[in-house]
Amino acid sequence: MINMFIAFLLALAVTTPVEARMPHEKKLSTIKETTKTLYPVAKIRTGDVGARAFAHNKTSAPATKTVSPCVGQDFCCTVATAATNDDTASQNSEPAGDVGTTQFVYFGKQRIRSFDKATLAPDGVLDLDMNRLFSAGGFSVGSSDPCVIFDNDSKQWLLCGLSLNALTITLAVGDYNADSPGTITADTVWTFYVITGPQILNPTTTCDYQKMGVDNNAVYIGLNLFDEFDFNFESSAIVVFRKDASLLAGGPATINIFSNDTNPGAFMSGLSQPYGPTALQSAKNLDTVNPTPYGWVAGMDGSNYFTGNPPLPLIYVYRIDNPGSLVPTMTRFDLPISPVLDQGTTPPLNRVSVKGGLKGTNSGVLDLGNVNHIRDNILWVVTALPVDQFGDSNPANPNIDRLGVRWFSIDVSTAMPFILDSGTLWDPAANNPNWYWYPQMISSPIDENGQSHMLLSASSGGKNSFWNEVIWTGTTNANNRGVLSITQTTPITVTQGNTPWNPTQDFLGSNKVYRDGDYHQASVDPVDGSLWTTGEFAYDPINWGVSLVHVTFDQPCN
Known about the structure:
Layout: H1 2-12, E1 25-27, E2 32-38, E3 42-45, E4 65-69, E5 76-84, E6 96-99, E7 103-107, E8 111-116, E9 122-129, H2 130-134, E10 143-151, E11 156-163, E12 168-174, E13 189-195, H3 197-200, E14 205-214, E15 218-227, E16 233-242, H4 245-248, E17 253-259, E18 277-285, E19 295-301, H5 303-306, E20 314-321, E21 329-336, E22 372-375, E23 378-387, E24 402-411, E25 418-425, E26 435-443, E27 451-461, E28 468-477, E29 492-495, E30 521-524, E31 531-540, E32 543-554
């Protein structure tokens, strides 16, 4: 039996050619680029928001901190987890979070809360219902799709949210704290800017599913556009906020909108399917030395969301040229991907798990993480995708029966971006496999040993198992940038679900589609380079809990 298992591992370890060798084609998007001046709709001081208001009745529990060693590594690390059970509404909390100089800010569908980095305990500065804070930006009810980013460059915080009642998108910019740069206080003033569908496409368009990124030139928001009346998908769009002194000081903002107001398909011109990319993920650029001068947004094929057709084996990469200028331009690159196993030099990641099968259908298929990121001019992209027992994601494969997680490293330092390396996290069990979905990936700065540590977080669970939050780590180095060395062969469960998740109704109150958790967001500490992530676990059969995870790496092992 042991020999058969070793043979199975060796068979999986056979690699295919690096995806960079596959042909890829550069396409110029035929788009309508619109420059607008966006005036603030409101300003509000944190301390003036008022009392907390929650849309649910669960009892608040204090965060707890546990520390445990990582295993299966050629280095040592510790994981500190703070878990709460009241930061999410029934069945979907849409957790986001980022780390700044002194605080970690969690931003979920029901609450925005700030934590002290040293203790992982709430610091009491932000502890508000999302609706309460964003009502200043024109939201009356139904705030959703939260995004939060700490801008390493300006040392200011950026919040973004969607109003479900009006389907408008609001960007909130926190002002600069001269006494303690990067720290949110009761005196922090938030300036709100509102984007509407008619501003972007046409009078009957609504916005949804926005994702935010930032670099030293601009703030980027990728989003979907739907018809106001039948809510059919119409197109994608990218909104670029010029990150000038006026925006950072709460003055008028210069925005550039990339879309097409007469032919939405032109934004995705040349694609063989009518829908093209959906849920465009903007990148946060973490390079401080010789950063790429462009903005980057990536998306996967979205036709399966709306037609049931198999997705195209493509990553769509949009490059924003001259993003700090008054009139930037945009270029699209179509990068073919292979559906078979892992690519490049990365061995397959084999999982020993016993249970599988998601209860619901809304499981993040081909859905990228909250925020892509750039490190050393490498754009890292991660997505969930359906695979079979052997990691094959070919849409024509009749044996696909589980979800895995796949990452790509894309070199954006040259005129033609190309895929350097990729890998797949999946469970090869013949029966009752574990599933992984809603992934997020982040990397640390290169340390004195020439290594950069990579953290991937995702939801994990099976048909009869608890819904957990897991993390997996790897390393890359300065001499082989963008290619991961895999030493950890099993994900670490950092937050264990309390019970099987088994709702009787979905989040809309029907019995059709269950919401299997929403998102993770991973981030890197701007002070010490440690890694953070936030995600969900099954708090009880019908509700999600939220966890904050802090991962530190120590070498050599003591």
